[in-house]
């Protein structure tokens, strides 16, 4: 898309936001806790979070942020109604919009998927409440300034339209999950992680693809970002993975309903996670079918693309962060 087209899109969205934003604010105060759980996907960048969202969306059991809904991030309740009206067959009895049919797909490019009903990261929604462009650790003052209740009411307003649990990436809030879950009483956290070497490689390649160089930071910023920013890009990427996963795991220990999911194991047997999720949702008094009907297996992307020298420097950098924090350079089944 050209810069001109982006400008036109932003202009239209700004107009709609001015018209519909106040309506959303008036409407969402009526949406308190719902009977449907909220599923939040968190993890280091390039750890499988996009595939996780696509998979859950493909099951047909959960509402999720689509590209259509993302256009209405400032008025998600209205966006959900518009999406249902245009894309659900039940709302199109005469078939006037059959040319608009769209489905979930498993293609993505740096977290972005093409298609009206393809998944999206929904960061425009979260940025209304968390005033950072990239996911980052929030200070106590920043946490206090966030309207967490308003954020959750916005999510509840989507659930009330689709009458399903809502699943979304929550990387914008993943370093401050306790604050979010204080208002999301029925939240399930899915922490995605993968082998450290392949995770770091993928982030380094993403830097090259997005910025055209390795030196510029890309994606989430853990609490140690300022310290990492002074280091070379090998130590930056290694620290990004190390500190992000460490922060999330520390938080999961304080939360009641959390699943720690390895990318390789998930790709090998998605049904195993489905059954874990089914049991977790049942503990929240929400039932999904016992019989799994989704994709049987995914191809795990674990090929080394970097040179042996670059990979060695990444692994050495990761070990540096491990030693600096007195821990073993092994994360679950993700052995270096």
UniProtKB/TrEMBL annotation:
InterPro entries: P-loop_NTPase. It comes from the Bacteria. Pfam families: Sulfotransfer_3. This is Sulfotransferase.
